Protein 1
Amino acid sequence: MYVFTRRLAISDPRTEVLQGTLDLMILKTLDTMGAQHGYGIARRIEQLSNDLLRMNQGTLYPAVLRLEQRGWISSKWGLSENNRRAKFYSITRAGQRQLAAETENWERVAGIIARMLGQTQGA
Amino acid sequence: MPRFTSTLREIAGRIRGMFAKRDREADLDDEFAAHLDLLTQENIRRGLSQEDARYAARREFGGVEQIKETYRDRRGLPMLETFLLDLRFGGRMLRKNPGFTAVAILTLALGIGANTAIFSIVRAVLLRPLPFPASERIVRLFHVPPQKSFPGMSVFPISPANFIDWKAQSHSFEAMAAYRPVPRTLTETANPESIPLSFVQPEFFSVVGIQPELGRVFYSGEDQPSSPHVAVLSHTFWKNHFGSRADILSQDLILDHDRYTIIGVMPASVEFKAWSGTAGAAWIPLVWNDEDRAERGNHNYSAVARLGPGVSVAQANAELQTISARLAVAYPREDTDWGATAIPLQKFLIDAYNIRAALLVLFGAVGFVLLIACANIANLALARALNRGKEMAVRAALGASRLQLIRQCMSEFMLLSFLGGAAGLALALLALSAGNSLLADHLPPGTQITLKAGVLAFTLAISIISGLIAGISPALRMSKTSLNDTLKLGSDRGGSSAENPRTRALLIVCEIALSFMLVNGAGLMIRTLGALQAVNPGFDSKNVFTGSFGLPKQSYASPEKKIAFYDELLRRVRAIPGIESASYVDNVPLSGGSMQPISVEGHPAAAAQDAIEIATRTAYPQYISTMHIPLQLGRDFREDDDHALLVSQSMARAYWPDEDPIGRQVSFLMGRNTGTWHVVGVVGDVPGETLSQLAPRATAYQWSRDRDWTYLTLVARSSANPSTLEASIGNAVHSLDTGLPVLRPNTMEKIVEGSISSQQFTMWLLAGFSAIALALAASGIYGVLSYAVRRRKREIGIRVALGARVGQILTMVLTGAMKPVLLGLGVGLIGSLLIGKAMQSLLFGVKPADPLTMITVSLVLAAVACAASLEPAFRASRVDPLIALRNE
């Protein structure tokens, strides 16, 4: 179980692992929660990770752009709770497929590593 | 698959993201603002004040500008966008410095324009293959004449009997054909005109390898004397003369009152104008009767062949040599020392026009000009680069990487070179369209010079490479700046000041050296032309009209009829007002002619093969007086002379050095006029083929009261411009025979000019390039010096303040300028000696290492360099020390 106890600097796009993780989290959030704007996604990620995950919220946007360019999420303009113009994102069917594939991949990798660590640590 | 498609979608999205920037930025602002607003609200709910809530929200959000940058990098294609930005910036910089831009573009345009024009010519002449399948396997067959009878001639026409034996005994060729271009007159039409025809053996079409467009070509048995007359038309003739009529195969072609059935039409692709075999209006079977076929000693035909599969030219030549040796043994009288050779057709055509050497030299010249142009650009670029030292340092301080600095500089030069390339292309198109008409006389007939896609690619490549070469040095230099030093010292002193004078001096040395070689080449050609024009042609070419006639067999069957026609025509021509004198000869000077073996009384040849061949001409009385050829001994022909000869001075000296040649007997062993002739006079020498012949060829003019001459050329000297006579002479001919055209009407002056046209062409082009090179070198020196003076303003100011006089400043600047120039002259001199060898074949009357030319060129270049240095030097001497010391 990985625990992030301090703020993540996910703004650096060169850290591939964290990049992919963020994509996964965004997709999962949208899948679970339905259409959200950027603030909503950030808050939900913090919620879903039991507040263990805190990050610079703005760094979501480049990731969201990439997901949208790849066709995994779609966007629509609407009004925020504050009656401001905001973009709402929702997961697409292709996104759902990607989410499923990535989830399976992640679980597989985590399982292998957990087994390896489990052998030296016991339960 | 999904990965692939999503990548594609990302790319598509990125491309879309490049447009509508303003809207997208506004959207991004809105989105961020909404997010920040929500965060702020949340913080307010937690109990923070407005201010604190906002600050906290911003902190939680992250660096807005940084995130926006990352976002923008993802949204579009950053590399492409920066490139476009660089280009726009480069364009702005160029606009801000119009002087630099104009000079640079002009320099490149001249260099690239000239290059493209010459490349097009080279391509049109040297690189375009013949329009026949596997054209490299087509060879021309020639005799190699014995050198002692034909000194200096490496090829000779073939004789029928020998050709037939070659054909029978060789295995190297899959097809062989003899042919002969002969003009005939189109008769029974409103306007009789002479049209060029190719008389070919039927196998000719197998050699050429192209199928007829309509109908058929000749069968192998169609060249018998008894065969019906047939003809194959060329596409152009069918179009122009018969209006491309569909029923052409049922029509007749009437030549000299003979009917020829048209049996086929060849496609336009086969018409290669430079080769006489395919330049005619029609092909007619070449008929050899038994007598023709037995002719071994008279060489009057051309031959062409196609190499058999897998046979090389060398192998074919080896076989021909073996066969020739065999024939020499079998027929010692005619064939001793007569060899045979096969030359690839394309090579022969190019060499025959002596184009290759000239074009290669010109290509070198063009390369030089481009190098000089690039050197100029590099110099200009260096000057500008150093001016921007401070700007570069500031950019670097703001975070530009070295790569970005280089890219920024490169884009400016790439833009420059593209603009220069475009300007150059425009210039080239202009030059080619103007030049096509001018150059038509100087290149193989019918070659059209057009700009092709290959040329555009070449030009573009040169533009890009020029930009790279010119841009790269200053770009590299700039990026190495030590930021601190540059920012401290100020804009004028950016960059390491030590290295640059050497680089700039080196560039000047190169420019001067290249210019020297170019101008020297031009100078040599000018002297060559001068020498050629100064050659005494042995006759007076002013105001002499020439026109040829060929009497058709049908109307002029007997010698008497021919004599009657020519004599009467001469009488009428002489009666035309304005004509001082007129006569006939078979070939005028500088247009080639017949060569025959002779045997001289008192110099008996051991055998016929040792007989020297001399140039022979048939001429009427008063020919030499019409042409103003000096009569040195004896007298001109008289009407009633029988078998009389006028020999040239060189012939008299060769055969009768110590005796009186008058009355001597000469036997002509072959040709149209055999028998024994006697000398009645000695005349001056006249060049047969070119003015640059170093040793005059022995020539004999023949005249007899009984003669059988079909082809003659009329020469008529008038008191005024001879071209006005064409009409009157045409009328005189028409009054005697309405169906007889005047062939190739011309003037002797034009013929003489035409004989040196290729040297003239080379000279003019080299002179043109030299002028461009001089202009470029001068502007280069001027630019370098101006800049150097500007940079040394402080130093000069100090000197003046310390008491230096105007003269001293001037001397200092000028000597500084002339040092690289002198070095350049030295290098150029050595270079000229080296390339002199390459030019040797083009020169006449002047050696490649001619000292007079080199000294003149040195003086010219030094003068140009001096002139270019004067203005900056004067500017330097007038520097006000106070102003200079105060400014940075």
Protein 2
Amino acid sequence: MDELIYQLKQQLIEALNLEDITPEEIDAEAPLFGDGLGLDSIDALEIILLLERHYGIKIDNPQQGSKIFFSVKTLAEYVTANKK
Amino acid sequence: MNTKPYITSWCRIQSNKVCVNGDVQFTSNEALATDEFLKQAFKAMNKPYMKFYKMDLLSKLGFTAAEYLLQANPFSELLDPTEKGIVLSNRSASLETDTQHQQSIVDRDNYFPSPAVFVYTLPNIVIGEICIKNAIKGENIFFISDHFDTCFTAEYIGGLMSENRIKNCIFGWIELSDDGQFFDAFLAMASASENPLNKQLTAENLAALYNQQ
């Protein structure tokens, strides 16, 4: 799980153009949206694309988004449970 | 009654150099790729804005020029946001980003169009980025033309101000080639307030500033 969390951090930094941020600086349990990294709705769409592209996961129910995308840790847990 | 606005300041970004009112504000000693040059020019201002790094090259170019322009000549705090306008133009529209988007969808077996790229496939998005940062809610438009039409630009902005639609206006030319390697940005601020120390916004004065080396 730690390895996946680190990998996701790296992928998020690249996909979301998070300048001057290292994986070590991202708190895995901190909210991704609102405070913290301050991600927006376009970033949410990019994360959906990232899940499909790198892990073969399609999110069928957008209502689940707020739980899945809460933090890097919840994202990693979802990937672990649904990776193809 | 004065109907011609005044040019209060201008910014030019080209050939790895940022100049405001004719003075060099930032330059790179080495030849840099456009993205790296714009990042360095923006960081040199020391005004962190995370959203900058998510913008496409055209928006980074226009946004950086606007930030340097406004640093030298901010909008008056007395202005209502609806009294601030922005009028831009270029030749290539958002072709550099359009090309990126097209490349991401050309292969049906590797079809992953990026939402973050797609949202920039219109040239007027650079206006949106500048407006969001600077609370500009007045007239705004992005024209496409073969060259920077100083006559049309002067007439158009003069018309907006003579009708009291806006009192200050950021305007100019933000051009980026389709491969992102060539860029030319000229942004200026026009004000309806009379000031004999400033040049009037005429086609001739505008052309002289734009062609200044």
